[in-house]
């Protein structure tokens, strides 16, 4: 079985006002991942994703290369990757 990981992310570019959070939540749920996503005051989107390592990689690639249809992703940063014994969330949430 694939080990569970937790990764923090922050996405830079035109990612606010383009339904980025809603699309990230939908993509995360479709992949069966858990975590959260929110807008920051500095115009980025940040959050945390948890799940099987290979599936987390799929969302990382989506966050880096795809995003929501009207978004423009300049850069995606991923930090604090660590293995976790159990998932800390039950769903993928949009935080205010």
Short description:
Its EC number is 3.6.1.7. With 96 residues, this protein is of the alpha+beta class. The protein contains two helices and five strands.
Give the tags.
alpha+beta; 2 helices; five-stranded mixed β-sheet; Acylphosphatase; Alpha-Beta Plaits; hydrolase; 96 residues
Description of the structure:
This protein has 96 residues and is of the alpha+beta class. It has one domain: Alpha-Beta Plaits. The protein is 25% helix and 42% strand. The protein is built from 2 helices and 5 strands; from the N terminus they run E-H-E-E-H-E-E. It has helices at residues 20-30, 53-65, and strands at 4-14, 34-39, 45-52, 72-83, 92-94. A 5-stranded mixed beta sheet has the order 4-1-3-2-5, covered by helices on one side. The mean pLDDT is 97. It is an enzyme of class 3 (hydrolase). Residues 6-96 form the Acylphosphatase-like domain. It comes from Alligator sinensis.
